[in-house]
Amino acid sequence: MNGYVKPKVVLLPNAVGLDLQIQTVQQILADGLPWLQTAFGRAFLQQEKRLSKKDVTLIDALAGDETVIYPECRGINQEPVNVMPNDNLKSYCFFVVRDPTDFVNFATLDTQTIVSTPLSLIFWVNLQKVNATKNYRFAEELKIDVLNILRGIPDVVLTQIYEQMDRVFEQFTITETYLQYTKPTFAAMRFDFNLQYPIFPENC
Fold first, then answer.
1. Number of structural domains, the chain?
2. Pairing state of beta strands 186-198 and 80-82?
3. CB distance 156 to 148 below 8 Å
4. Is residue 199 helix, strand or coil?
5. Nearest to 102 by CA among 123, 116, 91, 89
6. Are 171 and 179 contacting, i.e. CB atoms less than 8 angstroms apart?
7. Is 11 contained in some domain?
8. Dist CA 120 CA 145 (whole Å)
9. Are 94 and 115 in contact (CB under 8 A)?
10. 55 three-state secondary structure
């Protein structure tokens, strides 16, 4: 796992299916939100053993005693990027796919198969770095910016918005390291939505 300050987002050269749909929304967000520093694509859940004690024996260190789950995106040269909260970037977002994908239609005579996939779009923002001149918590303004982008994307059906850190990152492990990011100078948002799309776009 690498630390990063200026990660380079790498787009898939031949994206298809859900990867293509996510990449399309990813680029719309990158182009439409001036305050968004990095728009990551699809994140995958990873887990690893970490130590939860300060003083451990060599045996403890080798075994590990805590399983930590975190979201990981792929950067340049397929390098893994942990996209849990950090203070290196002023703002970023990433996507998490949620099961199941439902078939909207799958009849033999249909010329196209339409599916609907539930997604979570997670934002992390360092408000002070985004705009140090504002002496108030302006996370609500950023939320409206995102909503205005999402509602203009066809086939995006919003279902919920979460803003409490434990709900935004509920799939992942909130370790002591990340508790520092619960301060008012940081903001987290999760937009849950269903995305309908043709799974075989070449037949459209």
1. 1
2. unpaired
3. no
4. coil
5. 116
6. no
7. no
8. 17
9. no
10. coil
83 lies in a domain? yes
Print burial letters for 74-113: b (CB count within 10 Å at least 16), e (below 16): bbeeeeebbbbbbeebbbbbbbbbeeebeeeeeeeeeeee
CA 193/CA 170 separation, integer angstroms: 16
pTM: 0.86
Question: Residue 165 sits in which domain range?
Answer: 17-203
* DSSP state string for 155-189: TEEEEEEE-SHHHHTTTS---HHHHGGGSTTEEEE
Can you give the pLDDT of all 204 residues of the chain as single tens digits? 344 556 667 788 888 899 999 999 999 999 999 999 999 999 999 988 766 555 444 444 445 567 889 999 987 777 888 999 988 889 999 999 999 999 988 765 667 888 999 999 999 999 999 999 999 999 999 999 999 999 999 899 999 999 998 899 999 998 888 888 888 899 999 999 999 998 876 555
Q: Using DSSP, state whether 5 is helix, strand or coil.
A: coil
Tokens 């301060």 found at: 183
CA–CA distance, 106 with 124 (Å, rounded to integer)? 37
Q: Is residue 54 part of a domain?
A: yes
**Chain length of the chain:** 204
Say if 7 falls within a structural domain. no
DSSP count for the chain of H helices, then E strands: 6, 8
> What residue has token string 């942990």?
82
Q: Residue for token digits 């994140």? A: 43
